[in-house]
Amino acid sequence: QARLCAMKRGALIVFEGGDHSGKTTQCTKLIHAFESAGEKVKLFKFPDRTSTIGQMINNYLGSKCEIEDHSVHLLFSANRWEKQPRMMELLESGTTLIVDRYAFSGVAFTAAKPGFAIEWCKQPDIGLPRPDLVCFLTLDTEAAAKRGTFGGERYERTDFQKKVMNNFEKLKDSTWKEIDADKSIDDLHKEILDLATTTMASVAQNPIEKL
Ligand code: DGP
Predict the structure, then answer these.
(1) Each residue of 101-133: pLDDT tens digit?
(2) How many Å lie between the centroid of ligand 1 and the Cα of residue 49?
(3) Is residue 26 a contact partner of residue 188, using CB atoms and an 8 Å limit?
(4) Which has the closest alpha carbon to 106: 121, 91, 123?
(5) Which end of the chain is more exposed for a tag (fewer CB within 10 A), N or C?
(6) More confident of the two residues 137 and 3
(7) For the residues of 109-177, what is the DSSP string, one character each?
(8) Of all atoms in ligand 1, which is nearest to the CA of residue 24?
(9) CA dihedral 206, 138, 19, 203 (to 10 degrees)
(10) Which of 160, 170, 173, 60 is nearest to 110 (CA)?
(11) CA dist., res. 192 & res. 30, Å (int)
(12) What is the pLDDT confidence band of residue 1, given thresholds at 50, 70 and 90?
């Protein structure tokens, strides 16, 4: 019993939301805050464009190649699976993971394409570690537009992004916290730091669940 209590696992904290909602900025700030507090934390970002699969995804997103829609869905999932062993190892050894996009992006983006059912889209990610907290950053279209125009990557179109946000709504469960991202970087950070700190304290004794 005493030994079990000493083995504090890390928390899995995921950021989801539309493009331009500030996920990457907030992930970076959260990592820095935890590091300064002496916590064991590590950042993951999906898609991870550094692996062989990640490079295929990078070329696809930059429209340097075409990949059939089902195939690319499976590649995005494979890109998460290739990181799964390392993620589990870190979580079990007490490191908290901050993850910039995860399986929910996988589902929300593919299901925004014609002919894709949410249930089909969920299948390849079944078995990945389940997040303890999903920070879902929302930003209305007007506020998003103020943050500049979309770059040239595939999916960066307002009509497509609306469908994506609509799909995220269908994926929410009790681990999701919807956060209005239309505020200053520092105010948003404080809100997120609070949520993340509470989550880290509460999950320590719970087993890591699976999607
Ligand atoms: P980012 O590097 O966070 O800007 O993500 C790149 C783009 O890829 C962005 O438009 C979101 C999209 N995306 C992220 N994960 C997935 C996924 O698993 N499947 C699909 N189809 N798109 C994804």
Answers:
(1) 999 999 999 999 999 999 999 999 999 999 999
(2) 11
(3) yes
(4) 121
(5) N
(6) 137
(7) HHTTSTT--HHHHHGGGTTSBPPSEEEEEE--HHHHHHT----SSTT-SHHHHHHHHHHHHTT--TTEE
(8) 3
(9) -10
(10) 160
(11) 8
(12) very low
CA of 7 to the centre of ligand 1 (A): 34
Which one of 82, 155, 168, 171 would you pick to mutate in the ligand 1 pocket, going by the greatest count of ligand atoms within 8 A of its CB?
155
Distance from the alpha carbon of residue 177 to the mean position of ligand 1, in angstroms = 20
**What is the whole-number distance in angstroms between the Cα of residue 123 and the centre of ligand 1?**
17
- Residue of 16, 53, 63, 76 to test ligand 1 pocket, by largest number of atoms within 8 Å of CB: 76
99 within 8 A of 211, measured Cβ to Cβ: no
211 alpha carbon – ligand 1 mean position (Å) = 19
DSSP-derived 3-state class of residue 210: strand
pLDDT tens across 54-112, in order? 999 999 999 999 999 999 999 999 999 999 999 999 999 999 999 999 999 999 999 99
Q: Which of 115, 108, 202 is nearest to 155 (CA)?
A: 108
Task: Tell me which residue has its CA closest to atom 18 in ligand 1.
Answer: 106
d(Cα 151, Cα 15) in Å, to the nearest integer? Answer: 21
Ligand 1, CB within 6 Å, residue ranges: 19, 46-47, 61, 73, 76, 101, 105-106, 109-110, 153, 155
